């Protein structure tokens, strides 16, 4: 049986830097009636981007750990 190769192995090294996976978070995916979407290349960037709307739009001055876990679970690769 041949080993399975990673698809990235077929992408030239100079192009791999440009082929970053984009992550997305949608407020609707965490149960909010809101059309906000955050896109970034890392979970950390998504959380930073989503923090301001969480506070201003959803009136979440402090984000409970349960809500943070729910948000993390809702982040998907696009």
Features:
78 residues, three-stranded antiparallel sheet, alpha+beta, 36% helix
Q: Return Rg in Å.
A: 17 Å
Q: Mean pLDDT across all residues, rounded?
A: 81
For the biggest β-sheet, the strand order reads: 2-1-3
What is the makeup of the main sheet? 3 strands, antiparallel
Shape: elongated
Structural class per helix/strand content?
alpha+beta
The helix fraction, in percent, is 25-40%
Number of alpha- plus pi-helical segments: 3
Number of strands: 3
Query: What oligomeric state do the depicted chains represent?
Result: single chain
Q: What is the terminal separation in angstroms?
A: 31 Å
Kindly estimate the percentage of residues that lie in beta strands according to DSSP.
Answer: 5-15%
Low-confidence stretches: 4-8
Order of helices and strands: HEEHHE
Structure explained in plain terms:
The protein has 78 residues and is of the alpha+beta class. Helix content is 36%, strand content 13%. The longest helix is centred in the middle third of the chain and has 14 residues, at 43-56.
Produce the secondary structure layout.
Layout: H1 13-16, E1 23-26, E2 37-40, H2 43-56, H3 65-74, E3 76-77
Antiparallel strand pairs: 1-2, 1-3
Summarize the structure.
This protein is α+β, with helices and mostly antiparallel strands and 78 residues long.
